[in-house]
Design brief:
mainly alpha, 2 domains, three-stranded antiparallel β-sheet
Length: 203
């Protein structure tokens, strides 16, 4: 004889148990079904929201650090890895986001690609600047050379701050999308919860 079990807790269903039935082999205890719906909401977008919080924290920290440094002592190699990781993270969030359509995803990916391209250009410009000292016949120390060209270094630093701001803008756009998606899921889950009394059957 067929002995059905709850889809969630897998306990054998007993006579007079309050259940939600979706089919002969898909029966839930009422309390288990409610727990399932609430868990669905909590898990929806959890990965994306968690990653977005980490990205925002990282970008804010890096931006503040760049602002606090003397432009003559600005060493982009200390921040390059942070920028690369955040770009990769934002692309990953974009790929898995349920709140974006294909056109929006492609737009954000194109934006991230452009930011990465600009970052690469800044690295090249910085290396070329250092090469000017390395291959010059001047007897100036690197520190003296940097002091004499402080305006160049300051311009480079401002470009890195602009890059950080661009990534923060992408973050904000993704966060708005995830918040909107969360509200949509909450509405759908609440609707299913409201329908529970009408669907409850005694087993």
């Amino acid at each position: 004889m067929f002995k059905p079990h709850c889809t969630l807790c897998h306990k054998k269903l007993r006579k007079n148990d309050l259940t939600i039935v979706f089919g002969r082999s898909n029966i839930w205890h009422e309390i288990c079904y409610l727990e399932h719906l609430e868990q669905n909401f909590q898990n929806a977008g959890l990965r994306e929201i968690t990653m977005l919080k980490k990205v925002k924290k990282s970008l804010s920290r890096v931006r503040s650090k760049i602002l606090s440094l003397d432009s003559r002592k600005f060493d982009l190699s200390k921040f390059l890895k942070d920028f690369e990781i955040n770009i990769i993270s934002l692309k990953s969030i974009t790929d898995t986001s349920k709140g974006l359509n294909i056109i929006e995803k492609n737009g954000i990916k194109k934006n991230l690609k452009e930011i990465f391209k600009n970052m690469t250009k800044l690295i090249v410009h910085h290396d070329e600047f250092l090469d000017q000292h390395k291959f010059s016949k001047t007897k100036l120390t690197l520190e003296q050379f940097q002091e004499n060209n402080e305006d160049v270094l300051e311009a480079l630093r401002e470009k890195w701050i602009e890059l950080a701001d661009s990534l923060i803008d992408v973050h904000n756009k993704l966060r708005l999308s995830e918040n909107k998606n969360q509200r949509k899921i909450r509405s759908e889950v609440q609707k299913q919860i409201d329908e529970i009394p009408e669907r409850v059957e005694r087993f």
